[in-house]
Write a structure and sequence with these properties.
Layout: H1 3-25, H2 32-53, H3 57-82, H4 95-112, H5 114-119, H6 127-143, H7 147-169, H8 174-202, H9 208-215
Helix pairs in contact: 1-2, 1-6, 2-3, 2-7, 3-7, 3-8, 4-6, 6-7, 7-8
């Protein structure tokens, strides 16, 4: 991989990991839409770099699709939902503990992805970032009591899976990415409706309220 392509992949992967860390550190959901937008744009940059490097017009088209869906449509859905809900409940982990857990999960992601990195082609050195994103996204879903934070965690997990797919496989066909993007958008929109419905019925998006209903 040429110098400029390696720099593009490194920039995209670094931005993906940085936005994931900021999503954990900034426990509120008000800035989540902006950070998810930057994360989606970083993923699009990574895919565009691969497409230009391999002279693959279809992969360039995939990058534009990723930009439209993950950097625009999904953050818009999260942002409009956040503007209609109240103050989110506190996270189960303090910001300091969450950052330590994020560091450990990132280290774990780099360790478990070593076989994939050694067996993949150019650009695979950034594959551990995708694994780290998946683990961080699951941590967000497990440690946040806010229903909207569950949606944010799901998007981070999806971005991590997409990162691994693009880097380890050298790209994803446009038709496949189109189908995956449609599925992701549908899931995000459905979760968006559910979050607003929970807020309307209970006056809060605290999932602990749903646990109390199940106990009854």
């Amino acid at each position: 991989m040429t110098g400029w392509a390696a720099q593009g992949v490194a920039l995209g992967a670094g931005s993906l990991l940085l936005t994931a860390v900021l999503l954990v550190w900034r426990a509120g959901t008000r800035n989540a839409a902006l950070l998810l937008g930057v994360q989606g744009a970083s993923l699009a940059l990574l895919v565009l770099t691969l497409g230009v490097h391999h002279h693959d017009a279809e992969l360039v088209g995939v990058a534009l699709l990723v930009l439209a869906v993950k950097a625009a449509l999904v953050p818009w859905a999260v942002g409009t939902t956040a503007s209609h809900v109240g103050t989110p409940p506190p996270a189960r982990l303090s910001p300091a503990v969450a950052l330590v857990a994020t560091t450990l999960l990132t280290t774990l992601g780099f360790w478990v992805s070593r076989p994939v990195v050694s067996a993949s082609g150019p650009g695979a050195g950034a594959v551990p970032v995708g694994f780290a994103l998946v683990l961080i996204g699951f941590m967000v879903m497990l440690t946040r009591r806010d229903a909207l934070a569950q949606l944010v965690g799901f998007v981070v997990v999806d971005n991590g899976i997409a990162t691994v797919a693009f880097l380890a496989a050298g790209g994803v066909p446009l038709v496949v990415e189109l189908g995956v993007s449609v599925d992701v958008v549908l899931v995000v929109l459905i979760l968006r409706v559910l979050v607003r419905r929970i807020e309307h019925v209970f006056g809060s998006t605290d999932l602990a309220l749903l646990e109390e209903l199940s106990d009854r």
